[in-house]
DNA sequence: GGGGGTCATGTGGTCGGACCACAGCATAGC
DNA sequence: GCTATGCTGTGGTCCGACCACATGACCCCC
């Protein structure tokens, strides 16, 4: 067993046993090193891994915000894993798109089925209004688009699926932007996407699960076909 | 920008550009440190993160297997992220179960729909035969069970979904085992699970997607209800 | 007594150097 | 020709030091 794994196991056990809770601080690196009988560099390697896993956030200085604070941020590590494995070309873009369709159509169906109240839909509406601005760059448009889709996924009330969706969108953001030139007509594309978004929200509000799921599926599939993103980048 | 992030960006860029391929070796830590003008500890922190992300595998010694070799192992990092966030209690077990049902029923539907050839089903059959052994411990049984479910998910041909499924199973393995005492009758449970497994494979082989998906959904939901695992641990 | 500036303190961030264990390979010796 | 030994390069670990930063206590001046 490598020394830095001692720290990982210790922290995981402390979390599982409730000895460490979100918002609390990890012991200082020097203290942790002495407690476990290992060196500070070994502790640091473990803290780095925990940081990459979205379990701690480190900051310098003093005060309650400094040090290694326990957080629960699952999106960034999932994003990192996906991005890196997309980069190795051993994760076909087509599989990512297929997963998006599966998760998002499910979320839309769930949201429509459980009759979300209009307060939850307000964020989505606001985002759609922002996307109506006439002079958005592709980058700005897609950031709002991603936020909208993530918000929709959140309506289903499943933390894990929402996190995976958010990380999927973040991971492929660069690839999507790079594919914009493949579109024959950017303006026409945005008009279509905008009206499809409105239709999806309308279906969820109306409480018609099958319609909502179908609209989402067609929406995603249509864009990736237009952008020719269904093959490995 | 922290120094170890220099290494991460450098490696990700090299992967994306094809300058680093799977099976190749990362430059030595000392070399990397000098190339980027940073210290070896900083490089080591980055390598640790890459290792945790399933992108490199490190080993001591010399020869082609030693050093930091580029690999593509998405399951272990996903497992680690899920396990850690389950430990923080900010990821409800119910959401994980719901995700399992969604992914696995989809995979079963896909597999049944595309008429997998019997060679691909042989692994699943073999695992089911092994699970018929009369004196399996709960631990052994669930390991085989997990392997069976992961194999099924693989039949759909989506690398990402198969990886997520495998990591879900690994992450909850401990929780499942801990819940075995909740079952009123372990023997009767295994008999039921075994026959359900056979029925699922039969439906896939018969090419009846709706049946396959429905059987998988009932199978998973039934077990978690019996084991009372639908609430946070 | 109050207010503002200054320094002590503790945090992570970084560095250089050193030594160890390990695996493979070149080479010397038989 | 074969074996055994040492050389080489790899990651693994440690030590000690210094830096940048944010805070809070302290002190001086008004």
Automatic annotation (TrEMBL), chains A, B:
<protein>
    <submittedName>
        <fullName>FadR family transcriptional regulator</fullName>
    </submittedName>
</protein>
<dbReference type="InterPro" id="IPR036388">
    <property type="entry name" value="WH-like_DNA-bd_sf"/>
</dbReference>
<dbReference type="GO" id="GO:0003700">
    <property type="term" value="F:DNA-binding transcription factor activity"/>
</dbReference>
<keyword id="KW-0238">DNA-binding</keyword>
<feature type="domain" description="HTH gntR-type">
    <location>
        <begin position="1"/>
        <end position="73"/>
    </location>
</feature>
<dbReference type="InterPro" id="IPR011711">
    <property type="entry name" value="GntR_C"/>
</dbReference>
<dbReference type="InterPro" id="IPR000524">
    <property type="entry name" value="Tscrpt_reg_HTH_GntR"/>
</dbReference>
<dbReference type="InterPro" id="IPR036390">
    <property type="entry name" value="WH_DNA-bd_sf"/>
</dbReference>
<dbReference type="InterPro" id="IPR008920">
    <property type="entry name" value="TF_FadR/GntR_C"/>
</dbReference>
<dbReference type="Pfam" id="PF00392">
    <property type="entry name" value="GntR"/>
</dbReference>
<keyword id="KW-0804">Transcription</keyword>
<keyword id="KW-0805">Transcription regulation</keyword>
<dbReference type="Pfam" id="PF07729">
    <property type="entry name" value="FCD"/>
</dbReference>
<dbReference type="GO" id="GO:0003677">
    <property type="term" value="F:DNA binding"/>
</dbReference>
């Amino acid at each position: 067993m490598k020394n830095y794994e001692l720290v990982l196991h210790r922290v995981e056990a402390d979390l599982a046993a409730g000895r460490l809770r979100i918002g609390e601080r990890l012991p200082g690196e020097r203290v942790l090193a002495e407690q476990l009988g290992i060196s500070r560099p070994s502790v640091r390697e473990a803290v780095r891994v925990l940081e990459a896993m979205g379990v701690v956030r480190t900051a310098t200085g003093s005060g309650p915000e400094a040090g290694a604070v326990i957080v629960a941020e699952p999106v960034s590590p999932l994003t990192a894993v996906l991005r890196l494995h997309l980069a190795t070309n051993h994760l076909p873009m087509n599989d990512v798109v297929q997963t998006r369709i599966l998760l998002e159509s499910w979320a839309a169906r769930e949201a429509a089925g459980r009759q979300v109240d209009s307060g939850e839909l307000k964020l989505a509406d606001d985002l759609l209004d922002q996307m109506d601005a006439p002079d958005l760059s592709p980058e700005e448009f897609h950031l709002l688009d991603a936020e909208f889709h993530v918000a929709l996924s959140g309506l289903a009330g499943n933390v894990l699926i929402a996190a995976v969706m958010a990380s999927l969108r973040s991971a492929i953001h660069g690839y999507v932007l790079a594919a914009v030139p493949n579109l024959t007509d950017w303006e026409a594309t945005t008009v279509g996407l905008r009206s499809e978004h409105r239709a999806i929200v309308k279906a969820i509000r109306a409480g018609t699960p099958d319609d909502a799921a179908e609209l989402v599926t067609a929406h995603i599939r249509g864009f990736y076909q237009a952008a020719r993103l269904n093959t490995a980048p």
